[in-house]
Amino acid sequence: MEARTRNIYLVPYFLWIVLFVIAPIILIVYYSFFNVEGAFTFENYQKFFTPVYMKMTLSSFWYALLITIFSLAIAYPTAYLLTKTKHKSLWLLLIILPSWINLLLKAYAFIGIFGTYGVVNAVLETIGIGNRQILFTDFSFIFVSVYIFIPFMILPIYNALEKMNPSLIYAARDLGASSMGTFRKVIFPLTLDGVKAGCIAVFIPALSLFMLTRLIAGNRVITLGTAIEQHFLVTQDWGMGATIAVFLIIIMVVVMLLMGLRKRGIVLVKR
Amino acid sequence: MLNDKLKFSRIYLIAVFIVLYAPIVYLMVYSFNSGGTMTGFEGFTLDHYKEVMQDTRLLIIVLNTFVIALLSAAISTIIGVFGAIAIHFMRSKSKQTLLTLNNVLIVSPDVIIGASFLILFTIVGVKLGFVSVLLSHIAFSIPIVVIMVLPKLQEMNDSLIDAARDLGASTWHVIARVIMPFIKSGIFAGFFMALTYSLDDFAVTFFVTGNGYSTLAVEIYSRARQGVSLSINALSTLIFLFTILLVIGYYFINQRNNRLEDKGAKQ
């Protein structure tokens, strides 16, 4: 196509890239060098390396890691068993369906379920364990997060399993591999890309969750996301918020490079 | 032995389904509770639905949400389709760069998108409210549309375009008569995805709404922080049913497209 005519209707797209992709990143980095009074400074970066922020970063990492591991542990068998069912695509649709429902509504439901007089406590009472504080604990935070992220983990793993050539499994069996051996040496390595994609789709959002920490964890858990939101919308210290965002971006890039997703098979599922 | 395994896998799957759907069912059931809380079902009532219907503020917010979703999906689909065409016809090196830039917003956490857009709008001087929310929704929907359209373009045989050119078609004709019809299903899928992303978004909107303008997700968040109110349950139930309708609709459109494509391939 001739360059000149092409340019005209491509203007909006390139404008979008400049304004909403490149400019925001530059702005975040730029703002991270300013303190609350608007003076240029490296203060924010110094502050980030103090124990308070380091501890927060580590705990944020720890929670995200736990959430990813639990999601994987539940999602892998689910995806595997799904590929064995008769009406696979229908079952998959049913698994994905809850992820289409607004995250806040699901979080809201758990306020009722885990509440002091909620269903879970009623059950605990009848069993004889008695009433427990469930809402606003680490447990409820991790449970609800895993609940929300499971579909994002299932989908890429399911796709990877589906893509796998089944004759490889028969071959492994013919050569005398046990079912455990087949899984460890054949199935799992072949679906590793799906697992990686799933882990990224869970780990990075888990680092940056913020509404769940407020609704479900009752401000007891502070993730990097919560800290950013706090600095931007509550204390109005944009500089510090931007600094944390810079580190979150760095972490994100490192995680992606570590996972080695060259041919980035981006999983387009709900965030 | 085989039977046992089958049973176990079935139980496992059913357990996962129960856990996935339990909160949603729970919300729906309590939307009919005549008591005021989500604990202890006292009796059946439709009062909370009535409450939702009479809450003008809430209805305006629902309307806002839909207006934003439809507008942003439509605009981002138009921009995104041209973007996808641009990427498709690039040389491979700049193509890679452009694709990476395209995907930045898909992989970035919502908080960062929200925060950086907040800075952007404040600097440029866009008033926080309808315009800033609409612009952000368009911004994060564009890459989604591109991702949905690109595979369709890759499926297309480039000699189709050469043929059209040889027959004297202008650039615009090539796009309107050859490319667009071919990637139609991708465009629909992109529009639908953009629509649902917009309807669903909370984090980005939360950053860029000023006072006085709100979408459903933001409103639910602020209400939920104040505690349980069963009108939220009623509203959720309605949204849930609507979502199911959307998804089923999308599923059928997809199926039909696939069938049509199969037919086309056979002919």
Describe this structure in words.
The complex is a heterodimer of chains A (271) and B (267). Chain A has 271 residues and is mostly helical. Chain A is built from 13 helices and no strands. Chain A has helices at residues 3-31, 43-48, 51-84, 88-96, 103-114, 119-127, 138-163, 166-174, 179-190, 192-208, 211-215, 224-234, 238-259. In chain A, helix 3 crosses helix 10 (192-208) and helix 10 (192-208) runs antiparallel to helix 13. The longest helix of chain A has 34 residues, at 51-84. Chain A is globular. The relative contact order of chain A is 0.14. Chain B has 267 residues and is an all-alpha fold. Chain B has twelve helices and no strands. Chain B has helices at residues 2-30, 47-54, 56-88, 92-107, 110-124, 130-155, 158-166, 171-182, 184-200, 203-208, 216-225, 230-266. Chain B is globular, with a radius of gyration of 23 Å. Classes of the chains: A mainly alpha (271), B mainly alpha (267). Chains A and B meet through helix 1, helix 3, helix 4, helix 5 and helix 7 of A and helix 1, helix 3, helix 4, helix 5 and helix 6 of B.
Give the topology.
The complex is a heterodimer of chains A (271) and B (267).
Chain A: H1 3-31, H2 43-48, H3 51-84, H4 88-96, H5 103-114, H6 119-127, H7 138-163, H8 166-174, H9 179-190, H10 192-208, H11 211-215, H12 224-234, H13 238-259
Helix pairs in contact in A: 1-13, 3-7, 3-10, 7-10, 8-9, 10-13, 12-13
Chain B: H1 2-30, H2 47-54, H3 56-88, H4 92-107, H5 110-124, H6 130-155, H7 158-166, H8 171-182, H9 184-200, H10 203-208, H11 216-225, H12 230-266
Helix pairs in contact in B: 1-12, 2-12, 3-6, 3-9, 4-6, 6-9, 7-8
